[in-house]
Amino acid sequence: MAPIAKEKQRSLIDRLVAVSGGSYSPEERRKYYISGPQWAGAYEGQALFHAPTREPVGFEEVIRNLGELGVSCWATHDSDVIGADDLLTDRQWAIVARIDKALDDNGVRCSMVTCETFFHPVFAASAAAEAPEIRRYGVRRLQNTVDIGHALGAHYAVYWPGTLGYMVQGAVEETQMLRWFADGLNAACKRDIEVAREKGRPTLKHCLEAKPFEPQAQIILPSSDAMLAFISSGLLDHPEMVGLNPEYLHELMWGGAARAVLARALLCKKLFHFDINDGYPLKHDVDLGVGIVNPLDWLNVLVLLRSHGYEGPFNLDFKPPRTTSNYGVWKVSFPSAVDRFITLWNIAGEVMEDPVMQEAAAALKAGGGGAEDVDDIVAANKELLTLHELMGHRMFQLLIGQHRGRAFG
Ligand code: GLT
Ligand code: MN
Ligand code: MN
Q1: Which protein residue has the closest C-alpha to ligand 1 atom 2?
Q2: Is the pLDDT of residue 12 over 80?
Q3: In terms of pTM, does the model score above 0.90?
Q4: 209 Cβ inside 6 Å of ligand 1
Q5: Are 13 and 328 within 8 A, CB to CB?
Q6: Alpha-carbon dihedral 333, 334, 340, 343, rounded to 10 degrees
Q7: Average pLDDT, rounded, for the chain
Q8: CA distance readout (Å), 55 to 49, 110, 239
């Protein structure tokens, strides 16, 4: 093939996207509670060993593109949209007004706000650091994010505590740090109750998000389960307002089974919000688009969530790869992630109705019959238990459409 001239590359992308097909209309996409975070749309490709590969984009551009694609909601950190010098000043409200207008103009809602307590140097030792002035500043930022959330009509606040832990052991006392972390959350909930009352709005759902090993520190709340224990530790004034925002990849990162993590959160009634993406077990937080690495596992996750009536947001917390251009972020990254999600959601519905899956599950639960002696129990279930593997294969068939007659000659 001859080299593709620069000016022909976008039309090549457009043509191959069209030939690939399988995309949903913006109206169809809007039926789902999907949010696009500012930091995903604006991610420039930078990382510890990586320079940016894309140009900066502001919230107007992100919100406009989400509106055009049919992503119904937008989410942001306070500092994604308001510079450190403007935060906590009157100037921030002029920016909030511009955001509100952009949302309105593009038919997008703000679903979630999150306070950045990990990037700025003031949080080098976390927002629950020893010095009281750091913690006081952290509380002001948390409460201010609650105010911004109410001003923008959000229903969720997310907390990823970043370096809540230590790089060097010995200086930090973990129980104390956890108490200080709880103080911050308590202050956020208190402020929320006041503002919600003033505005006649429901309080926000406050969602903790775990990440096991990033950034370079020992994390003291490394997993969703650790956070569940923290919520019921007695340190929180309003544990009923606090739940989880698990992230699919963060659970894979520690070698967990995302579906089992979600099941535990569901049982505790703490699955408030869900960050959807993909990546590889026991590796870095690469944040690839949902379903691009582990579609079968994702199908299983969505079967669980559909069968338990999860109604919270699905937040596209992914990072378009460094090899994708600014144009590609909106032409390929976002629409393809949303469309894989919707397709997997629909296939999950087919799994739930599939007669093979239903009959196999029912047969396993029926067991082999009234044997009591241990050898008889083993014998009574021996053939039945082969159904586990058959069900796994059936999931694969459902994923690739063989149940609809797709065949390879
Ligand atoms: C950070 C993290 C994400 C969180 C964001 C919310 S911050 O980008 O890697 O998983 O969801 O604060
Ligand atoms: Mn996340
Ligand atoms: Mn991540």
Answers
A1: 160
A2: yes
A3: yes
A4: yes
A5: yes
A6: -150
A7: 97
A8: 18, 24, 41
Atom nearest to 275 CA in ligand 1: 11
Q: What is the pLDDT of residue 409?
A: 86
State pLDDT tens for residues 206-256: 999 999 987 778 999 999 999 999 999 999 999 999 999 999 999 999 999
Q: What is the pLDDT of residue 129?
A: 97
Closest atom, ligand 1, to C-alpha of 77: 12
160 lines ligand 1 (CB under 6 A): yes
- Is the CB of 317 inside a 6 Å radius of any atom of ligand 1? yes
Q: What are the residue ranges of CATH 3.20.20.150 in the chain?
A: 25-353
What φ, ψ does residue 361 adopt, rounded to 5°?
-65, -40
Query: What's the pLDDT at 108?
Result: 99
Classify 284 as helix, strand or coil: coil
Distance 253 CA to ligand 2 centre (A): 12
Q: Give the pLDDT mean for 348-353.
A: 98
pLDDT tens track for 382-393? 999 999 999 999
The one catalytic residue in 14, 78, 80, 287 is: 80
Instruction: Report the distance separating Cα 46 and Cα 39, nearest Å.
Output: 12
Return the structure tokens found at 385.
């238990």
**pLDDT surpassing 80 at residue 318:** yes
- Residues around ion ligand 3, judged by CB within 5 A, are 249, 285, 287
Residue 33 amino acid letter: Y
Instruction: Give the sheet arrangement for strand 156-159, strand by strand.
Output: 242-244, 205-208, 156-159, 109-114, 73-77, 34-37, 314-315, 274-275
Q: Which atom of ligand 1 is nearest to the CA of 211?
A: 10
Which ligand has the nearest atom to the CA of 246? Answer: 2
Per CATH, the homologous superfamily of domain 25-353 is Divalent-metal-dependent TIM barrel enzymes (3.20.20.150)
Task: Find out whether the beta carbon of 114 lies less than 6 Å from any atom of ligand 1.
Answer: yes
For residues 281-297, b (16+ Cβ closer than 10 Å) or e, as one string?
Answer: eeeebbbbbbbbbbbeb
Active site residue 86: no
Mean pLDDT of 284-303: 97
Q: Is 77 a catalytic residue?
A: yes
Q: Please indicate whether residue 285, judged by its CB atom, sits closer than 6 Å to ligand 1.
A: yes
